[in-house]
Amino acid sequence: MIDRKKIDLFFNDVLRKNLLPRMEYKGGHVFGSANIDEHNYASIYLPTEYGEYEQSKYYHTGDYKFIHFTSPHKLLSIVREKRLRMYDLESMDDKDEFDFANKALDLNGDPYKVSMIKRRIYSLSMCRFELETKEKSLSMWRQFGQDGNGVGLVLRFSKSNRNHWRNFVLS
Question: Per the structure, how many domains does the chain have?
Answer without folding.
Answer: 3
